[in-house]
Amino acid sequence: MPMASQDIVALIEGALPGATVEMRDLAGDNDHWAAKVVAPQFAGKTRVAQHKMVYDALGDRMGGELHALQLTTQAPT
C-alpha cells in the first residue's frame, strides 16, 4: 500500500526537527513523490549527505511502501 504524503512528512519532520517539507504527487498515484526538504541539520553537509539523512528518516519504507521519491534538499537561507 502506498504511503500518504502526511506520513512521509511526519517521518522526515520527526527525524529532522525544524525541517519544512513540501510534497508533490508526481504521477497522481500516491506512489511517486517529489519532496523539498529544508532543514537546519543540512548546513555544511553535501547534497549526498543531506539525501542520506532523509532516506535514513524513511528507513526501510523506501522501495517498499514508498516506491519513488525525488528529493530536493537545502539548508535554510
From TrEMBL:
<dbReference type="InterPro" id="IPR050961">
    <property type="entry name" value="BolA/IbaG_stress_morph_reg"/>
</dbReference>
<protein>
    <submittedName>
        <fullName>BolA family transcriptional regulator</fullName>
    </submittedName>
</protein>
<comment type="similarity">
    <text>Belongs to the BolA/IbaG family.</text>
</comment>
<dbReference type="InterPro" id="IPR002634">
    <property type="entry name" value="BolA"/>
</dbReference>
<dbReference type="Pfam" id="PF01722">
    <property type="entry name" value="BolA"/>
</dbReference>
<dbReference type="InterPro" id="IPR036065">
    <property type="entry name" value="BolA-like_sf"/>
</dbReference>
